[in-house]
Design a protein that fits this description.
Radius of gyration: 26 Å
Number of helices: 18
Largest sheet: 2 strands, antiparallel
Strand content: 5-15%
Length: 462
């Protein structure tokens, strides 16, 4: 009888342990959205359980073999392996096995840095996979809703968390700054929703007000208020299952037919802090990098140099950092930046500016891509301060991907439009909008009226 009881207890423990292993395992849809499975037609399906295979258990190693092994050790999100939507996205990965290889290869330079930050904050390691859901680890990702970067911050939320957005720089695309901001935000949401990570993730996608209202509605009706029972936007209902599916697949990728490239459990990039403005072409040369390589690691810079007022921080491959630092100490301070920016005032002419900076009108045209002599007050001209304008023109051409131009658009006013909502929609200020169109700040717009706007064209890098 004792043997029989012992066998029963062991069987129960084994079955519970296997279930735990099987359950350890996106705001934007998968980038390959046309390949993604269709959403279920009924809300009830998101809570339906399904029969599925349970992968065999993975052996535990004394030390992480690579970064993926380290990731698995820190997983701590609630399990939901029996949820129909989660299983739907698991199946999607099974049918598209190359997707994770492609995405993680793109994010490889940043993986150790982000995982390290998560561990320092004692946060679930699965959050390393959240940029796959958000941006497919594309540092230049830019959504139609004006969310930018790996973590897809919209402008207002970015500013709230200290991610400045200026002519020179967009902190939402700065991998270092945006990662710190995203983890701050997630921790804040985690505390706000009683330490429930699924609700925190839903709020990261839909906004905490949307999630709070859904909880209040359910509570008033005497209904369950966990993530799975809330009436949330469709995108948010799929967002958390996408991440939990990634958790399952990453737990045992080989079981699902996915081959992940090994990633070394060691840092690949390092942060170099500078206290002065530096031209990116100069930085690339000092570090022994191509401009494209430097730009991929530092996508927050919009222009040819770090911003005059900072940040001047650079992310560099760890094996290039010493070379950069040594070369920087030998660099003439006058060679750090060879450009300046002239703010065009009313009454300025190209000829007058050329005399002011002792550069020919022809060179000014070529460097700034002008076809004639007409310039507009409020815009900017790039001025080479080095003695060789031809070289300046070549550098400007090489840096063109960084020098995101202003795109002139015409907006036809519709009923309900006003200066404030138009400025917000297009990412400009009301002051700019009124200046460009010779209006007062209290001007009332008329349907059919045409307005001119100059909007930055953001490189999407998709």
């Amino acid at each position: 009888m004792k043997k029989m009881i012992g066998s029963i207890i062991l069987a129960i423990i084994a079955s519970q342990w296997l279930m735990g292993c099987s359950t350890t395992a996106q705001k934007a849809a998968y980038p390959d959205q046309h390949l993604a499975p269709a959403a279920p037609d009924h809300r009830a399906e998101t809570r339906r359980t399904s029969t599925r295979e349970i992968p065999p258990a993975t052996a535990v190693h004394s030390e992480p073999v690579d970064l993926w092994d380290r990731l698995r050790r820190g997983m701590d999100l609630p399990a939901a392996a029996d949820n129909a939507l989660v299983q739907q996205y698991v199946q999607w990965h099974r049918e598209n096995p190359s997707y994770l290889h492609r995405v993680t290869e793109r994010g490889e330079p940043f993986l150790y840095f982000i995982l390290d930050a998560l561990e320092q904050r004692n946060m679930p390691s699965e959050l390393l996979l959240l940029p796959i859901v958000e941006s497919a680890y594309q540092p230049f990702a830019y959504s139609h809703g004006r969310a930018a970067g790996l973590w897809q911050f919209i402008p207002s939320t970015g500013r709230h968390f200290g991610l400045h957005q200026t002519w020179w720089y967009d902190g939402r695309r700065d991998v270092y700054a945006s990662t710190q901001a995203a983890l701050d935000y997630l921790q804040q949401l985690h505390a706000r929703f009683d330490n429930d990570w699924l609700l925190a993730l839903a709020a990261y996608n839909a906004g905490q007000g949307t999630v709070h209202r859904a909880i209040t509605r359910n509570a008033e009706r005497g209904l369950t208020t966990d993530y799975w029972h809330l009436d949330l936007p469709r995108e948010t209902r799929h967002y958390v299952p996408k991440l939990l599916a990634l958790k399952i697949v990453m737990t045992q990728p080989e079981y699902y037919g996915i081959e992940l490239a090994p990633v070394s459990n060691s840092p690949q990039i390092t942060v170099v802090e500078l206290d002065f403005q530096l031209e990116l072409a100069v930085a690339a040369e000092l570090a022994g990098l191509e401009m494209d390589q430097l730009h991929q690691l530092n996508p927050g810079f919009n222009r040819w140099a770090t911003p005059p007022d900072g940040p001047h921080r650079l992310l560099l491959p760890i094996e290039h950092a010493n070379q950069f630092s040594q070369a920087l100490t030998e660099l003439d301070p006058n060679a750090r930046v060879s450009w300046q920016r002239h703010h065009i005032q009313q009454g300025d002419t190209l000829g007058g500016i050329s005399r002011q900076y002792q550069i020919s009108v022809a060179d000014l045209r070529r460097i700034n891509g002008l076809s004639g002599d007409r310039i507009r007050a409020g815009r900017y001209l790039l001025i080479p301060s080095q003695s060789d304008p031809a070289m300046a023109a070549r550098v400007a051409s090489a840096n063109r991907p960084l020098n995101i131009p202003a795109n002139r658009i015409t907006h036809v006013v519709r009923t309900g439009d006003n200066l404030w909502n138009l400025a917000r929609r297009h990412g400009v200020t009301v002051a700019d909008l009124t200046r460009w169109n010779n209006l007062r700040s209290d001007s009332i717009l008329r349907p059919g009226q045409r307005l001119v706007l100059y909007v930055d064209v953001v490189a999407q890098g998709r």
